[in-house]
Amino acid sequence: MPSNFNVRSAAGYERLMGRWSRLLAEPFIRFAGVADGERILDVGCGTGSLTFALPKAAAIGEIAAFDFSPVFVEEAQRRNTDPRITIRQGDATAIPFEDGRFDRALSLLVLHFVPEADQAVAEMRRVVRPGGVVAAAVWDHLGGMSGMRMLWDTAAAIDEGAQAPRSRYCFQPMTGPGEMRRSFGAQGLRDVTESSLTIRMDYENFADYWEPISAGEGPIGQYVAGLDPPRQDRLREALRTAYEAGRPDGPRSFAATAWACRGIAP
């Protein structure tokens, strides 16, 4: 299975995670580095959060982007107005480009949804030139996603059925400290560096937090959408209490931290 991220609609993904991945794209680009004239591959482009941020960082020569989901590919193609950018469907474990074509292969919030993540890293290394850069970032699900952990911990406290998906969420591959670094090293990348990147997830009110989750996108949405109406109502009200934390409904801000890793192809 090339990806285990369930996609219902591009608009639903944008409200759940796209707005935050766009915020993460800028510090990730600074971490990964870009330079004028480079050819860059965006592995798992989604709706284009990284793809469309790259030309703002440098005078990029070419950006090739692909994603496994046809829903994401269609939306990214619809948004694209830059002739330097091409977007297609593809598999991160069998990247549809020849060896050594790119200066950098970048992946934002993808590897933890690829069951064969080590193979995806190997493929990213394959398609960059010697001396080229491979870089990726994934959310720190266990310790760095306070807003999402609030949901999972609340759900697990009131629904025994939430405990298994919570564990899968918290310990997805590549989301723990050192996991990407070890994978990059095992695939032969050198000078491997791992760091963390933090943004803020700012919500206008509880509805702004809850509605994208209840729409059914991603692992969290899949769990919530699978609840019968009484259990979903119970979770919503318990989560409202956690979100409000004894104060009137309104804006809330949650820290969100991602692990970032980069290495150089030999």
Automatic annotation (TrEMBL):
Every Methyltransferase type domain range: 41-135
Keyword terms of this UniProt record: Methyltransferase, Transferase
Entry's EC annotation: 2.1.-.-
Gene3D superfamilies: Vaccinia Virus protein VP39
InterPro entries according to UniProt: Methyltransf_11, SAM-dependent_MTases_sf
A Gene Ontology molecular function term of the record: methyltransferase activity
Broadest EC class assigned to this enzyme: transferase
Name of this protein: Class I SAM-dependent methyltransferase
Organism: Bosea rubneri
Lineage: Bacteria, Pseudomonadati, Pseudomonadota, Alphaproteobacteria, Hyphomicrobiales
